[in-house]
Amino acid sequence: MSAIEIRNVKKRYKDLQALKGVSFTVEQGEFFGLLGPNGAGKTTLISILAGLARADEGSIAVHGHNVVDDFRLARRALGVVPQELVFDPFFTVRETLRLQSGYFGLRNNDDWIDEVMANLDLTEKADANMRALSGGMKRRVLVAQALVHRPPVIVLDEPTAGVDVELRQTLWKFISRLNREGHTIVLTTHYLEEAESLCDRIAMLRRGEVVALERTSTLLQRFAGTQLFIRFAQGVLPAELRSLEVDPGAVNGRQHLLRLSSYDDVERILAQCRAAGCTFEEIEVRKADLEDVFLQVMNGPEMVEGLA
Ligand SMILES: Nc1ncnc2c1ncn2[C@@H]1O[C@H](COP(=O)(O)OP(=O)(O)OP(=O)(O)O)[C@@H](O)[C@H]1O
Ligand SMILES: [Mg+2]
Questions:
Q1: Which ligand 1 atom lies nearest to the CA of residue 158?
Q2: Distance (Å, whole) CA 130 – CA 122
Q3: Shortest-distance Cα residue to atom 18 of ligand 1
Q4: Residue range 136-195, pLDDT digits in tens
Q5: Which residue of 126, 196, 280, 282 has the lowest C-beta tally within 10 Å?
Q6: Which atom of ligand 1 is nearest to the CA of 45?
Q7: Which residue's CA is minimally distant from atom 30 of ligand 1?
Q8: Which bound ligand lies closest to the C-alpha atom of 15?
Q9: pTM (two decimals)
């Protein structure tokens, strides 16, 4: 049984097709990244998953429970940290977490609540009113709220937006621990270096469609690998090297980014440039990161077709 099974989900808002038939599966125990630019449809998909919005077509199941027909069981298997800060200003942190436990029928949950608060550095604020908390503190409470019923599947919609470095590290330590203990994690973030270091597998959404779905390491190898950056003082890139350009369409004047299949290519490329009369102003060998992959996938329509 998969942790999350998303099948052909479509969602339209008036004349905007926010999701155009999204399908993918997240296996139990995975740390899964859902990436995409603003407006790609990530939050829409998560809202449908959490039962807060209805799909026009398609279905989602959490641990085998359909999120519409089998809402209560699906919801129980799921903890969602929403992107928007929503909370009741009149309760304290501890009351908020007790109330949330109550929704799931958990009465004596204080030990776990204390543990969650301790792991998110919230203990000092346990008796503070929600309205008296800073933005970053409120975000910690949202994370805690999603975890009170120890859901096997945890979905975090940009949990680190507007959050300081220290909390990010605290949060990732705790979430990674939960993942090691068997919880499935789905994360959306615009901090691609976070996704690169945390996620086993990544789906990229663009305008409501999945345009990449791969293991993180495969994505990095397939689309990126190692690159040679050169800026010429004089001369132009020899024609036979143009096919190596990472982004051939870019208007880049004297500078070029070339794909390397191995470090051994560097010598040959530089020699070819020199033979063509080029001189160099700058040379750099770079290891491509997830940001390079992201830009290539988002800018390259040809990648869409290649997806199974
Ligand atoms: N309730 C709504 N009514 C109308 N349009 C909506 C609604 N919710 C989302 N949209 C639109 O659907 C598209 C997808 O939005 P969504 O919030 O899912 O994007 P996202 O990938 O989460 O973006 P971000 O990275 O900015 O959070 C956007 O164009 C958005 O304007
Ligand atoms: Mg969003």
A1: 27
A2: 12
A3: 41
A4: 899 999 999 999 999 999 999 999 887 888 889 999 999 999 999 999 999 999 898 899
A5: 282
A6: 18
A7: 39
A8: 1
A9: 0.83
Q: Give mean pLDDT, residues 218-247.
A: 86
Q: Which of 10, 11, 13 to mutate to test the pocket of ligand 1 (most atoms within 8 A of CB)?
A: 13
Q: Which residue range forms the structural domain that includes residue 263?
A: 226-287
In a domain, 172, yes or no: yes
Asked, for residue 244, whether it belongs to a domain, the answer is yes
Mutate to test the pocket of ligand 1, among 38, 46, 48, 189 (most ligand atoms within 8 A of CB): 38
Verify that 78 and 204 share a domain, yes or no.
Answer: yes
CATH of the domain at 166: 3.40.50.300
Residues with CB under 6 A from ligand 1: 13, 16, 18, 36, 38-44, 83
Q: Give, as one character, the DSSP assignment of residue 129.
A: B
In a domain, 306, yes or no: no
Q: Do residues 248 and 140 share a domain?
A: no
Q: Give me the CATH number covering residue 283.
A: 3.30.70
pLDDT band for position 249 (cuts 50, 70, 90): low
- The whole-number pLDDT of residue 18 equals 97
Same domain, 92 and 50: yes
Asked if pLDDT for residue 78 goes beyond 90, the answer is yes
| CA–CA distance, 52 with 21 (Å, rounded to integer) | 18
> Could you give the 3-state DSSP secondary structure of residue 57?
strand
Query: What is the torsional sign of CA 150, 83, 93, 165?
Result: positive
Shared domain for 18 and 78, answered yes or no, is: yes
**Closest CA to ligand 1's atom 2:** 13
37-to-50, 111, 249, 297 alpha-carbon distances in Å:
21, 39, 21, 11
